[in-house]
Amino acid sequence: MNLLSLLAVSLLTAEGEPAAEPGFLQKIWNSVVTWFIDERGWVLIVRAVIVILIGLLLIKVIMTVSRKIMNRSRLRGLAGNFLLAILKSLLVFVYLIVIMRVLGIDTSSMIALLAAGGLALSLALQSTLSNFASGMILVSNHPFKEGDFIDAAGVSGTVEKITLFSTKLKTPDNKVVTLPNSSVAGGNIVNYSTEENRRVDLTFGVAYGTDIDKTKKAIEAVLDAHELVLHDEGYTVRLSEQAASALVFVCRCWVKSADYWTVYFDLNERVTEKFGKEGIEIPYNKLDVNVKTEK
């Protein structure tokens, strides 16, 4: 029998007696003494105090270590604080359950109530939990990081922020797009910033009858003269297709990832200028109109 039970019995036996009478207080005191000494209640108190102190110390140590891990990982700011809050709530709940078990209080009903509430909450927040789980997958697998330029969920942009539930991208035209993590993790992710170098692929069409070697040398001359092209990596200039109205040449060269768009536009402009200087005709659609006159 614990202390609460003994006190309840004392109150029942003292029913009808005035609260100020010595007999009432004496019965309470006797119950406490009986529980403390005869039923070794002091052992329970000492055990509870030890559990309380050790539990507080463990919670403090676990939270300190977790906070350091968060600071060293990508889970900083809002995401890290949210995870720490969840962890602390779980630790405190387990801590209270253990203390109640040590004091002899039945916790089965509380655990069942918590399980039922957790089930109802998970059903109500199914999409939110899906985004949360996807955020954990993105953080653990590291398909991209803040500052990378990626294609994800049909949007291209620079990763501004990764939170537990969404990923924010800034598009080249300076729009901020917020994508649910479930959409990002559930589709293909193209990361253009992972590798240091990136290949520029271009095609140029010239008119039929144009000298192939002359066209290739004109494109190669532009590549050789461009200061941002990685000449040590080599390049490719070849005839790739005989289209309906043009000979199509493919041009492939390597550049630093940060210089991709600069080289892309420069080559388009410079090759067009080079073709004009070399007299290489760039085909375009023509429409012949024949006018028939009747006499």
Key features of this structure:
295 residues; 5-stranded antiparallel β-sheet; 9 helices; 18% strand
Report on this structure.
- There is one protein chain.
- With 295 residues, the chain is α+β, with helices and mostly antiparallel strands.
- The chain is 53% helix and 18% strand.
- A five-stranded antiparallel sheet has the order 4-3-2-1-5. Strands 6-8-7 form a three-stranded antiparallel sheet, with helices on one face.
- A hairpin with a 5-residue loop joins β3 (166-170) and β4.
- α3 (41-72) runs antiparallel to α4 (77-102) and α8 packs across α9 (260-278).
- The radius of gyration is 38 Å and the shape is elongated.
- The termini are far apart.
- Mean pLDDT is 81; it is low at 14-21.
Quick structural summary:
This protein is of the alpha+beta class.
